[in-house]
Amino acid sequence: MLGRVVMFIRSVLNYTPYLDTVAHDYCNRYNVRANSRFALKSIIKRYPIMAVIVIVNLTSFVIVGIALRVFERPLENLTHAGFGDPITGLWCAIISMVTVGYGDVYPSSYLGRTVVVLGAF
Q: Which of left, alpha, beta for 24 (phi over 0: left; psi -120 to 50: alpha)?
């Protein structure tokens, strides 16, 4: 699954307007390699607010997902919610933070619930 995500990101960065022939000409002129790193830097330079929002959201998803796993894993044998798997904690964090709340996975400890409530803000 992670390989698919990496390949998707690389393909999106390879087919941006920052890697066409004009971009290659500018890169050759200023002695810079025209690769996906150049495209990513160009996108961040052009859309700085969107880049900050995406980076902050992704970071907070991961932090809340890890915190949920840490607080809910000791109760794995009692609840059978599946928090032993890191993806389940990440899934619960994302669903809670985007206010969808399917209800298929939810924290049962007070610390886990606190993390989800604070993450939703």
A: alpha
